[in-house]
Design brief:
141 residues, 2 helices, 9 strands, 29% strand, elongated
Length: 141
Amino acid sequence: PVVPFFDSSGPEGQKLIMQELSLVEGNQCRELADIVWQIGERRGCNEIVIRYDCGHTLRAEVWAPSWPKTQEYGTHESEIRRYLQHCLHVMTRNPGAPQVQITVPEGRCRHCSRGQRQILLCGPVHADLREATAGAGVAKE
């Protein structure tokens, strides 16, 4: 599970930190700015993953077309924070509009071709991806 908390030990005061984020590369504690930067730069992040019944966990593709390009910013910590501020500003200008798209590949596990999709993990949110079985929900007499 992911637990957000604030850390006031940084030079700029409080920073939003996410605990136990990555299922792909082990548990770690990362700042929200680093997560948003990774989505903007790589169209995915360690925190948004698909879990399969074979035991594999693969990253989902994340697309945020309205966000600025990461190439317009430097890689220094202050630039990454400025990028986060710009992304949050863009997303709050029109809060009802879709801002981010998560693509979950259909079918079996891309790693072993045996496992079926089970859960999409997006931070603390879990979405059930299991296919409905034929006849599910139909009461038999």
